[in-house]
Amino acid sequence: LFTPEISRPFRATDHEPEVMYVYPTTAELPFGWKWRYSGVGLVHQSNGQSKPLSRSWNRVYMMTGLELSNSVSVNARIWKRIPESSGSDDNPGIADYIGRGELSAFWNINKDNTLSATVRHSLSSTDRGSVRLEWLQAVGSTLGGKSNLRLHTALFSGYGDSMIDYNRKRTVFSVGVSLVDF
């Protein structure tokens, strides 16, 4: 039975609205790789809580993506935190934990299965960051129909799995459902 004192269906709910500009490219690279896009963006991430549990930060980023024969893709993103005044900063030093950049790789094994790995790093002497391994598997397509639902399984280790614990190292295993291609 659900009782808020001892259990909750969602431990934290983080929000991450963003605006971005993506420039598509078609450049051919060595070994069959294609440079697919570059872009810039602005992102706000917060947990929507009030003090003392409030966590938020804003950052600008640059990104790019490569692809190999529609089965493998690699995306890179590097960002800079937009500074806040020390009096209103909910989480000073967040970039030293969650990181200043990430590299993601995706492998489409077949039409029903995708594996991915994302590595984030602080890019500083603190040497912190995280690793996330994910598996998405189509739900219902083996029964003869097309499904846009995916079973989403993830293993996370490091800092920043949730905004409330950005400065605590955690290992988290999660299972859920993702809506894809809607």
Report the C-alpha radius of gyration, rounded. Answer: 18 Å
Average pLDDT, to the nearest integer? 89
Largest sheet entry:
9 strands, antiparallel
Distance between the termini: 33 Å
What class do helices, strands and sheet pairing give? mainly beta
Q: Could you give me the name of the CATH homologous superfamily?
A: Phospholipase A1
What does this structure look like?
The protein has about 180 residues and is mainly beta. The mean pLDDT is about 90. It has one helix at about 95-100, and strands at about 20-30, 35-45, 55-70, 70-80, 100-110, 115-120, 130-140, 150-160, 170-180. The protein has one domain (about 20-180): Outer membrane phospholipase (ompla), Chain C, CATH 2.40.230.10. The longest helix is centred in the middle third of the chain and has 5 residues, at about 95-100. The protein is built from one helix and nine strands; from the N terminus they run ββββαβββββ. Strands 1-2-3-4-5-6-7-8-9 form a nine-stranded antiparallel beta sheet. About 5% of the residues lie in helices and about 55% in strands. The protein starts with 17 loop residues before the first strand and ends with a strand.
